[in-house]
């Protein structure tokens, strides 16, 4: 895959995507885009703390990633989609031509605020999901063997269902008298 642009991710202020979490290396990873629009993530961390979808450790290697993938740099979690949106916001000149040809809508807005101690989301829904993932019981449930090997559409539907269940459970807990 021949990359046309490479973006740096890390704690250093001159990185293209700056993550302020102390568990993130100064230069933790790079995200490259190819001429055909594919994204390649490469781990540069010395600690081997660059994960794709919570279970694939890159450990100095590269992997093709899609917008649905969830990435972990140190203890910070972010989706590929959120990274791409932030890159488009910071470097609009790189995407305008391609977007005009494809007719896709442009993405605006900054990366959302940090949520739940260094976990980053890009929308209210993801903030809720990431907050819920902080719960050890929910993490055990979502990483159970029954979920492994299913397609990404089914995983998204399952994640939405899990979030709705947790939201309704939390509403029930809040409404109980103390």
Automatic annotation (TrEMBL):
**Would the keyword Transcription be found if you checked this record's keyword annotation?**
no
Could you list this entry's UniProt keywords, alphabetically sorted: Membrane, Transmembrane, Transmembrane helix
Q: Which SMART domains match?
A: FHA
Q: Where is the FHA domain?
A: 7-56
According to the record, the segments passing through the membrane are: 111-133, 145-170
InterPro entries (alphabetical): FHA_dom, SMAD_FHA_dom_sf
Q: Does the keyword Amino-acid biosynthesis apply?
A: no
Q: What is this protein called?
A: FHA domain-containing protein
Q: What organism does this protein naturally occur in?
A: Candidatus Kentrum sp. FM
């Amino acid at each position: 895959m021949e990359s046309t642009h490479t973006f740096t991710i890390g704690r250093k202020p001159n990185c293209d995507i700056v993550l302020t979490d102390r568990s993130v290396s100064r230069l933790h990873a790079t995200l490259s885009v190819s001429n055909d629009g594919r994204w390649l993530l490469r781990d540069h961390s010395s600690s081997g703390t660059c994960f794709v979808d919570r279970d694939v450790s890159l450990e100095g290697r590269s992997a093709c990633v899609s917008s649905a993938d969830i990435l972990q740099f140190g203890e910070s979690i972010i989706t590929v989609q959120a990274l791409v949106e932030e890159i488009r916001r910071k470097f609009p000149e790189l995407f305008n031509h391609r977007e005009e040809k494809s007719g896709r809508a442009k993405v605006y807005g900054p990366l959302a605020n940090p949520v739940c101690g260094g976990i980053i989301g890009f929308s209210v829904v993801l903030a809720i999901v990431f907050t819920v993932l902080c719960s050890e019981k929910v993490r055990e449930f979502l990483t159970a063997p029954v979920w492994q090997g299913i397609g990404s559409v089914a995983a998204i539907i399952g994640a939405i269902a899990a979030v709705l269940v947790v939201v309704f459970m939390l509403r029930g807990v809040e409404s109980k008298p103390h």
